């Protein structure tokens, strides 16, 4: 759908955004805006398990609740994760570069 | 003496016997005398051992009494036992004196003892039983000889052979054992592990509920229409089973949208913080002055070439607003654009709609926040449903259905509980005020009013043909409950008319004060009698409804005014935008002549529109370069009355404005007197 494509391109074009990755539920990256595959593979391997843990936490506390988003802010970047049943969507941005 | 020798003899005899036995050792018997072969008298010799007691004769004749008692000499004579009752040692009075010399157990019973009697009874019974059995046997054999089959006698109680009973057993050959083992290949195993958490259980229950509901639904449908019910159930199932490719799923779209906002939040982090929390602290030090802090700037590629003609906040979502783009210039007319932005994503509009001609006015329905009414430059009115993703309006007025002939300057939704249909009013330069009704298929106009030019001093009895239609530029409906059918109309000639929906030919009153077109009229949000008007003659006038001749106050801003608006939180605060790129904020309660703030917002652009946010302390300002800027009002500009218990906010505000008006009128009167 072109809407999705245009939104992806737009996000990628925002200030400070380093990359956008979409990973399917098996851990295979579907889309990635990184040039080097190594980075993609690393993110695709590590992030989904953390998102699962986070979802476990939220749902254990209250089964009617569910995880919406996960944001990990480090010194250098911020990783924003949207974890759903079919896919995991990651955006890596450097917030200070946006200024 | 004869007794004593006997006694002596006895004693002696005894002793002699002893002695003899003793003396054997000492003295051998005398050898028999050779000459005496015949019976010789034995010689008696008394021999006294040496250690015999030597007693005197008197002592020898003494009678010694000997007693024989039944006491056991070996039994202890003084046994002491501890008495637990008295807790003291007590002497046993009687001690057992019996000595048992010999004891043995025997098996003889006395004939007359109980045991013996019982034994004898038993023997008798056994004898009787065996006699009976024998009798039975004899009888049986006798009968057998005579009759044949006969019941054998019961011999279960009889022990056949009581003495010679022996066990008989035989052992079979024990075959030697040998172990045999085989191993089969173990079945292929796979370790399956699972986690059972509370939410997984919950999910399963929910799925089960769904299944049950589907079953019930299909069952009930099957009762009515069997075939279609099955189909429907099948269709439902197939819909849920259908797998949308991940990259095209709507869920992904939604996530992308939210992530976009998150990225924007990071980009505009300071702005977001300012929007929420920044309050200019220096306002405390300069009373009577305020400032406007620029926040986000909403601009998109397509909008850069157009002018902002209308902004409207969404009544349901506080962060959403619609911007209509068009052109005010007669000669440069292009297609129109509507962008619906959210404050959460300043870089990209949430929805975009394209129209054929420039958009002049947009308005969200107060109740159904997805309906957007649009008025265009070519006179058409459109209604969009924002929720649909299509770029088409759901209703469009065309030449056939009675669109206006001139640009539609303003559209306002009507909320009428009586009528079920949705209605909105539009005003246009061709002098018609139309009420449009939304039916199932189209818009139906109804002319509420035909505006006519009213010259100052003339009554409306004038020949209607002489005065032509007046062009309406703006309108505002009264928001006071009970007066919702009254509205103000600003015309191109500079007159403001107060009209009612009930009367279609007459004005309730006319206010003539401006020399040029009136571009904006607004009722005060709180005060029911005051309204503002702004005009191309560079002035803003504050009117009291009852006084149609003179405005209460006039403000001259030295430049053409684009728009004016009342603040929702105060009856005395209003703001205006001018063509030199400035925003002016007035608070009549603090300063009746000068604005509290006059700030230049954009360089080289004219500001065209201004709206206050009903809840947040921000204003949106649109300019003619297609950009919308949001500004935060500093605290001095937001002074509002705080009602205490028993007071109403509205009353306080109305009182404030009334006070201002009073003073203004008094000063006017003074001026008038003096002049």
Number of helices of chain B: 8
Give the biggest beta sheet of chain B: 4 strands, antiparallel
Strand order of the largest sheet of chain A: 2-1-5-4-3
**How much helical structure, as a percent, in the residues of chain A?**
25-40%
Mind summarizing the main beta sheet of chain A? 5 strands, antiparallel
- Beta-strand percentage of chain A? 25-35%
Unreliable residue runs of chain B: 1-24, 227-241, 456-466
Give me the Rg of chain A, rounded. Answer: 14 Å
Work out the oligomeric state of the chains in this entry. heterodimer
- The pLDDT mean of chain B sits at 81
Looking at the structure, what is the overall shape of chain A?
A: globular
Determine the strand fraction of chain B and express it as a percent band: 25-35%
- Sum up the overall morphology of chain B in one term: elongated
Largest interface: A-B, 35 and 29 residues
Strand segment tally of chain B: 30
Unreliable runs of chain A, pLDDT <50, ≥5 residues?
A: none
Subcellular location (chain A): Cytoplasm, Cytoskeleton
Organism (chain A): Astrephomene gubernaculifera
GO cellular component, one term (chain A): microtubule
Family (chain A): Belongs to the GAMAD family.
Structure report:
The complex is a heterodimer of chains A (99) and B (675). Chain A has 99 residues and is an alpha+beta fold. In chain A, 37% of the residues lie in helices and 29% in strands. In chain A, a hairpin with a 3-residue loop joins strand 4 and strand 5. By secondary structure, chain B is α+β, with helices and mostly antiparallel strands. Chain B has helices at 3-26, 57-61, 114-147, 198-224, 226-241, 250-267, 269-277, 649-674; strands at 80-83, 88-91, 292-298, 307-313, 320-326, 336-342, 351-355, 359-364, 371-376, 381-385, 395-396, 408-414, 423-428, 432-438, 443-450, 472-477, 486-491, 495-500, 509-512, 518-523, 530-535, 539-544, 553-556, 561-566, 573-578, 582-587, 597-600, 607-612, 618-623, 628-633. In chain B, the strands form 8 sheets. A 4-stranded antiparallel sheet of chain B has the order 3-30-29-28, with helices on one face. Residues 1-24, 227-241 and 456-466 of chain B have low confidence and may be disordered. Chain A: Belongs to the GAMAD family. Chain A: InterPro entries: DYNLRB1/2, Roadblock/LAMTOR2_dom. Chain A: It is found in: Cytoplasm, Cytoskeleton. Chain A: One of its GO terms (biological process) is microtubule-based movement.
């Amino acid at each position: 759908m072109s809407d999705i494509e245009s939104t992806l391109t737009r996000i990628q074009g925002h200030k400070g955004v380093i990359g956008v990755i979409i990973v399917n539920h098996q851990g295979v990256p579907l889309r990635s805006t990184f040039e080097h595959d190594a980075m993609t593979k690393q993110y695709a391997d590590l992030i989904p398990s953390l998102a699962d843990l986070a979802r476990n936490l939220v749902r254990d506390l209250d089964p009617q609740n569910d995880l919406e988003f996960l944001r990990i802010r480090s010194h250098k970047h911020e990783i924003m994760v949207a974890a759903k049943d079919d896919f995991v969507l990651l955006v890596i941005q450097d917030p200070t570069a946006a200024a | 003496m004869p007794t004593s020798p006997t006694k002596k003899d006895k004693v002696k005899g005894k002793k002699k016997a002893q002695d003899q036995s003793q003396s054997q050792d000492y003295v051998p018997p005398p050898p028999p005398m050779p000459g005496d072969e015949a019976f010789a008298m034995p010689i008696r010799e008394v021999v006294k051992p040496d250690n015999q007691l030597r007693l005197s004769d008197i002592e020898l004749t003494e009678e010694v009494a000997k007693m024989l008692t039944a006491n056991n000499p070996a039994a202890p004579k003084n046994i002491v036992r501890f008495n637990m009752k008295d807790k003291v040692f007590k002497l046993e009075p009687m001690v057992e004196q019996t000595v048992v010399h010999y004891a043995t157990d025997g098996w003889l019973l006395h004939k007359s003892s109980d045991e013996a009697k019982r034994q004898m009874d038993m023997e008798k019974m056994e004898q009787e039983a065996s006699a009976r059995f024998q009798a039975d046997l004899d009888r049986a054999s006798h009968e057998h000889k005579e009759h044949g089959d006969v019941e054998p006698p019961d011999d279960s109680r009889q022990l056949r052979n009581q003495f010679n009973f022996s066990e008989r057993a035989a052992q079979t050959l024990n075959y030697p054992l040998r172990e045999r083992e085989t191993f089969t290949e173990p079945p292929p195993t796979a370790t399956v592990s699972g986690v059972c958490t509370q939410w997984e259980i919950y999910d399963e229950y929910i799925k089960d509920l769904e299944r049950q509901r589907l079953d019930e639904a299909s069952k009930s449908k099957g009762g009515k229409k069997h075939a279609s019910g099955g189909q429907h159930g099948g269709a439902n199932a197939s819909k849920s089973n259908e797998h949308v490719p991940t990259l095209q799923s709507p869920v992904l779209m939604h996530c992308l949208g939210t992530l976009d906002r998150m990225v924007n939040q990071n980009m505009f982090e300071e702005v977001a913080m300012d929007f929420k929390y920044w309050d200019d602290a220096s306002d405390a030090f300069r009373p009577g002055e305020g400032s406007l802090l620029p926040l986000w700037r909403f601009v998109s590629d397509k909008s850069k070439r157009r002018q902002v003609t209308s902004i409207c906040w969404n009544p349901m979502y506080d962060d959403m607003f619609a911007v209509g783009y068009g052109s005010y210039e007669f000669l440069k007319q292009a297609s129109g654009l509507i962008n619906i932005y959210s404050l959460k994503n300043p870089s990209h509009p949430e929805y975009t709609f394209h129209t054929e001609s420039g958009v002049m006015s947009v308005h969200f329905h107060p109740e159904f926040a997805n309906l957007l009414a649009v008025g265009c430059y070519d006179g058409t009115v459109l209604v969009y449903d924002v929720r649909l993703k299509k770029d088409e309006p759901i209703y469009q007025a065309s030449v056939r259905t009675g669109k206006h002939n001139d640009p539609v300057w303003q559209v306002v939704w009507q909320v009428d509980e009586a009528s079920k249909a949705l209605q909105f009013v539009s005003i246009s330069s061709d002098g018609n005020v139309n009420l449009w009704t939304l039916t199932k298929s189209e818009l139906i106009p109804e002319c509420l009013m035909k505006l006519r030019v009213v010259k100052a001093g003339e009554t409306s009895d004038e020949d209607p043909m002489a005065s032509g239609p007046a062009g309406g530029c703006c309108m505002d409906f009264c928001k006071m409950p009970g007066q919702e059918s009254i509205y103000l109309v600003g015309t191109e000639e500079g007159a403001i008319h107060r009209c009612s929906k009930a009367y279609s030919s007459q004005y309730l009153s006319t206010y003539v004060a401006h020399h040029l077109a009136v571009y904006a009229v607004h009722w005060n949000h709180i005060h029911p009698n005051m309204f503002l008007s702004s005009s191309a003659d560079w002035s803003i006038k504050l009117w009291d409804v009852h006084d149609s001749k003179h405005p209460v106050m006039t403000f001259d801003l030295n430049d053409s005014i684009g728009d004016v608006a009342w603040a929702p939180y105060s009856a005395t605060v209003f703001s205006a935008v001018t063509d030199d790129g400035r925003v002016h904020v007035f608070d009549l309660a603090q300063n009746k002549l000068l604005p509290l703030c006059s700030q230049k917002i954009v360089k080289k652009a004219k500001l065209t529109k201004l709206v206050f946010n009903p809840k947040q302390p921000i204003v949106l300002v649109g300019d003619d370069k297609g950009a919308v800027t949001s500004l935060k009002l500093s605290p001095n500009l937001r002074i509002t009355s705080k009602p205490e218990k028993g007071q109403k906010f509205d009353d306080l505000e109305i009182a404030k404005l009334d006070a201002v008006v009073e003073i203004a009128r008094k000063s006017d009167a003074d001026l008038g007197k003096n002049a």
